[in-house]
Each structure stands twice: as C-alpha cells, then as structure tokens.
TrEMBL record:
<keyword id="KW-0732">Signal</keyword>
<protein>
    <recommendedName>
        <fullName>Probable sugar-binding periplasmic protein</fullName>
    </recommendedName>
</protein>
<comment type="function">
    <text>Part of a binding-protein-dependent transport system for a sugar.</text>
</comment>
<feature type="signal peptide">
    <location>
        <begin position="1"/>
        <end position="19"/>
    </location>
</feature>
<dbReference type="Pfam" id="PF01547">
    <property type="entry name" value="SBP_bac_1"/>
</dbReference>
<keyword id="KW-0813">Transport</keyword>
<dbReference type="InterPro" id="IPR006059">
    <property type="entry name" value="SBP"/>
</dbReference>
<dbReference type="InterPro" id="IPR050490">
    <property type="entry name" value="Bact_solute-bd_prot1"/>
</dbReference>
<comment type="similarity">
    <text>Belongs to the bacterial solute-binding protein 1 family.</text>
</comment>
C-alpha cells in the first residue's frame, strides 16, 4: 500500500516535470527561469502531427542565429489543453516564457493584453514592413486599441470535413456538403457497419470544435458572430436547430470516442475504420507527415456541411511578454517567424496556410493551394473552440457543457448551460 503511494507520487512528479519542459534544442536543463538568456519557445506542439513545423522554424532560426540558444518548451495536449494552464501559472508568477503560442482574437486581446502582460509590436511591424503583408483582418485579430501585440505564423481552417476516399468510392458516395447529405451518407455507412463519423473527445475541445462548425452551418457567419457579442441569444431557434443537428451527428460516432484524442480519431479515418472526421487542418499535417497519406488520393476534404464560402479562422501567433530578459532575441525570432521564409518553412508541414499574403504558393500541396484561394474569398468566422471568439472563461464553461451533452444528450439542459455561460461574455 505504502509502496504504491510512493510510486504514484514519483510518477506524478515526473509527469509534471516532463510536462513543463518536454524537449530542448538548447542546453536542455528544462529549468529555465526568468533572467536566463535562452530563448524559450512555449507552445503545445509536441509529437504526432504537431511539431514538424515548429522544428523547421527553429532550424531556420538556428541557421541564422547560431549564437542564440533556443529552448523548445512545448507542453503536450491538443488545443493547449495543458499548455494554457501551465502558461497561466507562469504568467501569474511573473515567469513568462520568452515567447508563447497564443490564438489571435479574445485569447490574446481579452486575456494577456487586457491583463497588461504584453509588449506592443508596432515598431517590429514597421521595421519589417509587415503592415501590408498580413491581411487586415488578421492584424485586427492581434491588435487592441490600435496597438499590435503578436505575429501570426499561420492560418488554420477549422471547418473541414475529412473523408476516406476509398470508403466513399466503394460505397458510391459523394462528400456531403449539406446536413441532409451528411445524414444520408451516414445512414448508408452505418448500415454497412462502418463508423460514419470519428470523434476523439478525451480532450473535450474536439466536441466543441464539431459543435461550432454546426453552429456556423446553421447560423451563417453573421449570426454566428452575434452569439459572442450577446446580440443573438443561445435560445434562438437557429441555435436550437444546431443543437438538435449536433445531437443527431453524435448518433453516428465511434463508441470509444471518450478515450481517443484528435490524432487517434483522425487515425480511424486514415485506416478505414471510420469514414469522416471534422477537424482543423492540423489533421492534414498529421495525415501527410505522420501517416504518409496522400492528399486527394487517400483522403479528401470539403467544408463542413453548409459552410461553403465561410472560413473558421484559427491563427497561431507569438508575441513578446513583458518582463523577459532577452527581448531583442525574441524580436529576432518573431522576425524570422513573420518572414516569407519562416512561414513557408512552417506551414507546409503544419497543415496551415501562410498568414502572409506574399508567401510562395508553389510550396503548398493541393489542399494548401485550395485553402489559400478559399481564404481570399470566404467570409471569416472566429473559432470559439480555439480561443478567438470569446474569453477563456466562457470557453471553459462551454467545453464543460458540451462534454456533458455528448453523454447525456439533453438539448434543453445544454441550451440552458450555454445561456448561463453567456454571462461571461463581455
Ligand atoms: C492550434 C493548432 C493545433 C491544434 C491541435 C489549435 O488550437 O491552433 O495549431 O494544431 O490546436 O493541437
């Protein structure tokens, strides 16, 4: 008994330690504290489909600045499940990493900027000539009260439905672009014993991600946007319709969804155990780089039902926290990350498209090329699941409500929880 307690304590301690510093291309002592000269890059990009782009970016930086030691301080967990908590406690303890991954929108502006934790980067944008190199909508997402606070490394699309080409071909199915077509295909697949839709909500954000794409499909960009400003109530008939549709979709998922993460769920589609998956295009990075699948041969993609012409934007950005000792080195890193070369090293591996408008399109596969074109034309919607649409406090409550809904399927209770969470909206 005693022994097992000690084993647990040692295990927990080692997990905490490894979570706080998973790998390093610098000196690797993992205990980087305020005042160190190492350039600590904090993100949640570790392993399976996540870290290839980051490694390429770090390599590019190290080639240019061999004298600046880097520490890759990534904390595992999709969508920042664990990293955001570690970051919050470090920021509170005045021990910020040199630079950290943060989504453009509320997560940055209502979070760290409002808390007065970030330096402005207007001078860096001036110096690098960036003000007309990023789309205005994107600069707005990283600005507050006329000041710019971070540099976008990418644009991810959230509303993508991935499907297994072979399964669709063998069953004479077309990729569904409407909810009716989705349910029609799902029924046929289910009758054949194939799981229609893969979900891995061990980390609850994945179900929120699916739900927000249904909201976007049912409400359209404008009304969807009104949810986060309080102009449209969560008991609006369209939201209820979205909730019912989401519930119906949950009738077609794999039974073991709550023990899988997003990679495990994507894998079901990759290996033919499930036909479809709704996930951001980091899934493409995973399919191509980790699983060695081919775009438009092994898997296909369409916007999630009824969201054609709409683009759920997720942008990963990096800024300069107040109080770091190596601000000049951080700016050097941000300059590389914001350069054409930096963006084109990172994004083809990450699955995202470049945030810059002048990147080299030839470096991207067909999915990337299509998405670069779509982004230019589409109506942009901010992702809730990925921190852009609303504050972290609201998102936490929505994640909890969604998680309960996935098991209990009580639509009224879910809408009530969304309504009460809305008190967190500013
Ligand atoms: C991030 C992506 C990441 C995904 C899964 C999102 O919140 O923006 O960069 O790949 O989470 O971890």
């Amino acid at each position: 008994m005693k022994k097992s307690i000690w084993v647990s304590i040692v295990l927990i301690c080692s997990l905490v330690l490894s979570a706080c510093s998973s790998s390093s291309s610098g000196n690797g002592d993992g205990g980087d504290k305020k005042g160190s000269d190492k350039l600590e890059i904090f993100s949640w990009w570790t392993g399976a489909g996540e870290e290839d782009g980051l490694k390429a970016l770090i390599k590019l930086f190290e080639d240019k600045y061999p004298d600046v030691p880097i520490e890759n301080a990534a904390v595992a967990g999709g969508a920042g499940t664990n990293a955001k908590a570690v970051l919050a406690s470090r920021m509170q303890g005045n021990d910020p990493p040199a630079t950290f991954q943060v989504h453009g929108g509320a997560e940055l502006n209502e979070g760290w900027v409002a808390a007065d934790k970030m330096e402005t980067l207007n001078d860096l944008y001036e110096k690098e000539g960036w003000n007309d190199k990023f789309p205005k909508d994107l600069i707005d997402m990283v600005s507050k009260d006329g000041n710019i606070y971070s540099v976008p490394v990418n644009i991810h699309r959230g509303n993508v439905l991935w499907y297994n080409k072979k399964i669709f071909e063998e069953n004479g199915l077309e990729a569904p672009t409407t909810f009716d077509a989705f349910f029609e295909a799902a029924e046929k697949l289910k009758a054949k014993g194939i799981t229609p839709l893969a979900l891995g909500d061990k980390e609850p954000w994945t179900a929120t991600h699916l739900f927000e794409t249904v909201l976007l499909g049912k409400l359209g960009t404008e009304d969807y946007g009104k949810l986060w400003t309080g102009e449209l109530s969560f008991d609006d008939a369209k939201v209820k319709d979205a909730v019912d549709t989401f519930k119906k979709m949950l009738g077609y998922i794999n039974e073991d969804h709550s023990s899988r993460n997003w990679q495990d769920a994507s894998q079901l589609v990759a290996n033919g155990e499930a036909a479809m998956n709704v996930m951001g295009d980091w899934a493409k990075g995973y399919f191509v780089n980790d699983l060695k699948l081919k775009v438009n041969e092994d898997f296909g993609y369409v916007p999630t039902p009824e969201t054609e012409g709409q683009f759920m934007v997720i942008t990963d950005t990096f800024g300069l926290p107040k109080g770091v000792s190596n601000a000049d080195d951080v700016k050097k890193f941000l300059a590389v990350l914001g350069s054409v070369e930096g963006q084109d090293a990172f994004n083809p591996l990450k699955g995202s498209i470049p945030a810059r408008i002048d990147a080299d399109v030839s470096k991207y596969d067909q999915y990337g090329k299509d998405t670069i074109e779509d982004f230019k034309e589409a109506k942009l919607a901010a992702s809730l699941a990925h921190g852009s649409a609303a504050s972290e406090g609201f998102l936490t409550k929505v994640n909890q409500a969604v998680n309960i809904f996935v098991t209990q399927k009580d639509a009224k209770q879910f809408v009530d929880s969304l309504k009460s969470a809305a008190s967190e909206l500013k």
